[in-house]
Amino acid sequence: MNSKTPLWQRDAAQLAAGFREGAFTPTDALYACLQRSAEVNPRLNALITLDSEGAAHAAEQSTARWRSGRALGALDGVPVTIKDNLQVRGLPTHWGSRALAGAVAGRDELPVAKLRAAGAVIFGKTNVPEFTMQGYTDNLVFGPTGNPWDPRLTPGGSSGGAVALVAAGGCPIALGTDGGGSIRRPASHTNLVGFKPSRARVPRGDGLPPIFLGFEVAGPIARSVADVAAVMQVIGDRPVEEGAGPQRARILFIPRFGDHPVDPQIAALTEAAARHMAELGHEVTTAQDFGMAEAVNQRWPLLAQVGLAWLVAHPQELSSRPFDASLFGPAMQANAENGRKASASELFELLYEAERLRNTLAQLFDRYDFLLTPAAAALPWPASETHPTRIDGREVGPRGHAVFAGFANAVGLPAIALPCGFAGPLPVGVQLVAREGADDALLALARSFEQAHPWRRFPAL
Questions:
Q1: Is 182 a catalytic residue?
Q2: In this predicted model, what pLDDT tens digit does every residue of 288-318 receive, in sequence order?
Q3: pTM reported for the whole predicted model
Q4: Does 114 qualify as catalytic in the annotation?
Q5: Active site residue: 37, 158, 188, 224, which one?
Q6: 448 is catalytic
Q7: Is-contact 380 150, C-beta < 8 A?
Q8: CA-to-CA distance for 81 and 167, rounded, in angstroms?
Q9: 129 and 136 in contact (C-beta within 8 Å)?
């Protein structure tokens, strides 16, 4: 890294190295990120809540710790943003809905509290779709978020605001959530690393009502695997084991799920990533047919629909204030109604299929260490549209772009999205998935791929 590289372009590890050497301070880094955010946010609409005063105070405290040799760790003084479905003490939580107007969090959600205790400088919250239930980022409170690589297009969702700001240089790290690909797909659309940990690897608490139950996990978004691992060291239930995993991994490359279409440019870049893995010495086998996730994919939207209907019926779980569901946008009103009408049998079918998939994948992981798939089936689409309606010339439904994501949530598997190239001006990501609990091995494999195929690059905003 050149000494003249702007601070907003540096990742968390590079910032920490500069703090340690006394080349610059956490206050300098925060100011650079705030200035960069102010430059890019008018075009992106990614940052929706700003706490510059609280962040400045935290940065000053961090600066004092670094100067006295008492730094709290690798994230001390690093600017961070939080997705707006995670509670941050003293800041509003909109969850993308007009129904939550005026709601201010009284305490940090547990992963946020851990980041704060590690010295991370939390300076704002990022935009989400309403109740984080859609694969793009738009709502009736703040409007749509744009993709830094083309602000007319979506960065995906539901962690769209988070990835947009990190990719544009507004901060090196964001904390997001993933209930069906909500970290991985947006990361793939913005040239970032997005990590979904194993179920329960990141403990939750003091948060919003869990309408996705434990299938949604909190996880980091960053520009490098090392930064993702640094966040996991802080928010995870145990330290990350460096260098875990086999030296010669057995990787199953899955080009498509069933007959679902994949954008040809994404397919080509994912196939190239599989070849790169083989060149690194791993044993790569191509799956000729992979339909085992189909039953879960067909039913997956039901989980959040039932959860939202439950929330409407139990408003006290969210707030002591009145909760007016008529303020929901049309899509969420429809989702809540679908959830209300759903039968216990339909919900059981989803849970049953998830359990059956868990057992099937357990047998698959006896033969393979990792799965490799596209992270998303489509390139970014117009920012105000909920989903692409066609992929590779074929009509698709609302989750046609997301077919590779939900199965990992249903089974609790760790999964990571990594940049693997560009389709014209737009970034493309590949997904790696491991057996439940093999988070550290997955991060080690991702790091080796990153070292062999570096992707650091910023959009021309």
A1: yes
A2: 999 999 999 999 999 999 999 999 999 999 8
A3: 0.98
A4: no
A5: 158
A6: no
A7: yes
A8: 12
A9: yes
Choice among 37, 97, 159, 182 that is catalytic:
182
Query: Is 189 within 8 Å of 380 (Cβ atoms)?
Result: yes
Residue in this structure with the two tokens 């100067």, named with its chain if needed? 67
385 φ/ψ angles, rounded to the nearest 5 degrees: -100, 140
Catalytic residue among 37, 83, 125, 159: 83
Q: What is the DSSP string of 92-126?
A: B--TT-GGGTT-B-SS--HHHHHHHHTT-EEEEEE
Is the C-alpha dihedral spanning 339, 342, 344, 348 positive or negative? negative
pLDDT digits (tens, 9 = 90+) for 87-123: 999 999 999 999 998 899 999 999 999 999 999 999 9
Task: Give kind and range of the element (H or E) at residue 276.
Answer: helix 264-279
Residue type, position 406, single letter = G
Burial letters for 335-354: b for 16+ Cβ neighbours within 10 Å, e otherwise?
Answer: bbeebeebeeeebeebeebb
CA pair distance 256, 454, nearest whole angstrom: 25
Closest CA to 12 of 164, 91, 121, 124: 121
As given in the structure block, the two tokens for residue 216 are: 């949604």
